[in-house]
Write the structure tokens for this entry.
Amino acid sequence: MPVPPRTASATVRAARIPIDWGSLVPLRLRSKIIAEGVYAGMHRSVRRGPGVEFGGHRPYVPGDDLRFIDRRSLLRHDRLMVREFETETDRALWLVVDATASMSYRGPDAPGAKVAYAAVCAAGLARVALASGDPVGLVWIGGDGVRALPAMGGREAFERVLGTLEGAGAAGDASGDDQAMDRALMPIARRARRGATVVLFSDLLDLPPGAMASFGALGSGGRTPVVVWVLDPAEAKLSFQGNVRLRALEGGAVVEADADAVRATYLERLRAVGDGWERELTARGGRFVACTSGDDPAGVVRQVVRSLGEARR
Amino acid sequence: MSVLSVAALLVALLVAAPVVAHLLRRRQAEERPFPAAALVPATPPQARKRSALEDRALFAVRALAVIGLALLGATPFVRCSRVALNRQGGASVALSVVLDDSLSMRAPLPAGQAGATSGPTRFQRARQGALELLDGTRSGDAVAVVMAGAPARVLVAATTNVATAREAIEAAEPSDRATDLDESVRLGRELLDALPQSDKRVVVFSDLADGSAEGTALAAEGNVATWVPLGELAGLAEDCAVTRADRAANKVLARVVCTGAGTPAPTDGAAAQGSGSAAPGARPGAPTRLLELRAGEEVLALARVSTAEHLSDVTLELRGEAPEGLVARLAPGDAIAADDVAPVVAAGGSLEIAVVGDAASSHVETGGPPPVEQALTALELDARIHPLPSVPEHAEDLGNFGALIIDDQPGLTPEVRRALAAWVDKGGVVLLALGPRAAAAQLGATFEPLVAGVVRWGKSPSPGIDPGTAAAALGAAAPSYADLSAKGRASLDAGASDAAEVLARWQDGAPFLLRRPMGRGSVLVLTLPFDTEQSDLALRPAFLAIVDRFVSTARARGGARRIDAGQSWTFDGFQRVRVRRLGGAGAAAEVPVLEADGRPRAAPALAGAYEIDLGDEKVTRVAAVPEREIDFRPRPVSPSAASEVFGGVAPSMDVSPWVAVGLLALLAVEMALRVARRARAGTAPVVERTS
């Protein structure tokens, strides 16, 4: 089958786009500041098992460890009960960063590109997780010069996450690549165990049609999917005026419209995108956080942590 | 202008290109990257429409730049022709601008002549040149302005306030005067005499047509240079003028003066309508023009006039009763339309001069009429001479004359004196020449009240007059009377000088020429007769000056109904006088009546009929086109006066550096506009960087 010739726009989208960090650098310092502003503390596992803190009783079922049969309950009530203890455990944090071409956009009111903002939030979240002893893994959607990192803990893990984020470049058009989402999430589905948290940083624009289902599927098996919807302030408000001719960075769409006339319709469609993702995630026990790159990253990270706490109750 | 310059100027048409491009441009928004473009609903495609100019300032700057480029491309083919001033070592200069406002300056310059772009007439070009000259002055320069229309007069005395001189020149208007270059240049020199500048120049803006084509060349005198920067003003032109039109009964005698250059002859059909007699000098086939006698739009009579002749007298005959307000008009028009029309006045328009003398004693060896009559004829003063054997005894007889010359008469009888005194009181002018016969008057025959006291004749202790005392009256000819070879002279009593103005004195101080006003008239007294046996009085050039002054005085007194434009009417004895040009409108029709030497005078600058309101009566007088002005042959100019050392217009100024500087300024303006525009656009969303 002959390969169709690549168009000029396709060539541009496939090319590496350096990240416009704007005022979001240095990433290390930013992430440290963000992490210091977020108190997470140690978190307890919902799993019951060997531990030091009593977690309650439950009826014995065959197969339970006989060491945990409550003998006093058997003698007093003539019923077989099992004592449960809550145990503290490490839960992996998987970061999924969208680095497709659309994430390279930076509007006039934004401190940096969307992907830069996502990287800052991801680094801050990684530092918080690592400070809590949770391992952190990193995968990418699209991007150039990026590499996936397995979940690992310790100081070295943070350095590796930072290095990967700083060396990344935006590239790729995921809108026509149905497998792009599956390729990115495959390592997580395979390696993330029950209790892991998967946080996706994306503008949710130009993702392939099955992206929502693929990501929502991660919510099974005790994992918590979280989506951080990163938009540029110009995207959030459609701040253009008058007659404008807009060209999408992925998908090749070109639209000529009167910005003032279509603003309401646009905002409605944008809100529908967010609502769709939020419904899907909520149904699967996940959480949805919307923000713009003009917001304070610490606030976004704090909101993610808070959402995770709510999801685990 | 060459083909190259035309081609370069055609580039200026490109100024329309931005307009066309701008108006035809489709209103299409600038494409901007936007990741969520897929969510933006497209509005219906807009129809192609013409857009208005959005940034008029920027467009204007660019249009000017295109025009500037075209001009730059055309240079040095396109040049500005200006009168430029060269300085000697950069020193300050004193300039006396002589601006010719005579009739000949009304002639248009030939089409396409350099400098003819801004003004079609010689006067406009001269005025423009004078203003350009003032543009070249700077602090420390002195400027005076003299008008060369006769009589020459000072418009602005020497001043360092150039703005004043500029305003005066800008307000100057052409007139129908004759040209008096000599006097105007002399005035210009006098104005500069006392100035400290070492570089003094009289700058003449004139066509040099003063009727002295064979005269001496204009040249520098003393330390004051003479400069004629605009040689282009001089040149021949075809022009005819109606200088007079007198009506006697049913005949009109018109005088047509032409420059001599011919114009095409009119068709025979037009000429056949004429009922007048052609000029005697008209030759078959010679270029002619039609002289029409009009009453409003109605042509009452016409005659053909040869333009090849310098002067033609034409008689037009009226049929039946003719209305008042007739005019004589030449058709078709020529270089100067203003002199093609003259009002018809009743006969007597010329000055009637009675001459009383002894033809036997007052004669010249070469024969002909007495010297005074020859002088009057030679001067062409439009005077009719009436030789009389004796002075009339009745005032009614004297009333037919405007002036009277009495040459060495043996006194006047009481009846004559009484009639003469009454006539002078009413405005008559007498020239009384006293000789040996006047001194031998019989008892009772005196010259009272014209001359007080007794007249005596005796040997003259001095050979001639003192030219210094006669400079004002006799002008440049006064030195010719320094030695009169007089056998004797008349002596007057001391009382004769009372209430009289001594215009010239003998070298021993005795009066030679007196002027004594009487009522509205005046008496000029000479202490020598015209007899060539007694002295050379009548043979010297100064005699013409005396006769000319006498005639001018008689005309000014109202003895003549016609004067040349620029000359003055004097109204002695009248308190309230108003002079208004008939046919004129508004303030321009009023001729100011000014006091000069205690006598009200009015000098009409334009030819035509004037109504003079003397309070108790109204009279009509005429200012005519000076005949000597209808001669466009320029007076010679010495090469030094046309030297480019003073400056000039031949090396015209190349404007390309100024155009280039203008283009640079436009570039700076455009950059400023673009910066300002960008600053304004900063409030709107800017194009985001995506790659």
Summary: Chain B has a mean pLDDT of 80. Chain B has 14 helices and 35 strands. The interface with chain A takes residues 27-43, 45-46, 684-686, 688-691 of chain B (CB under 8 Å).
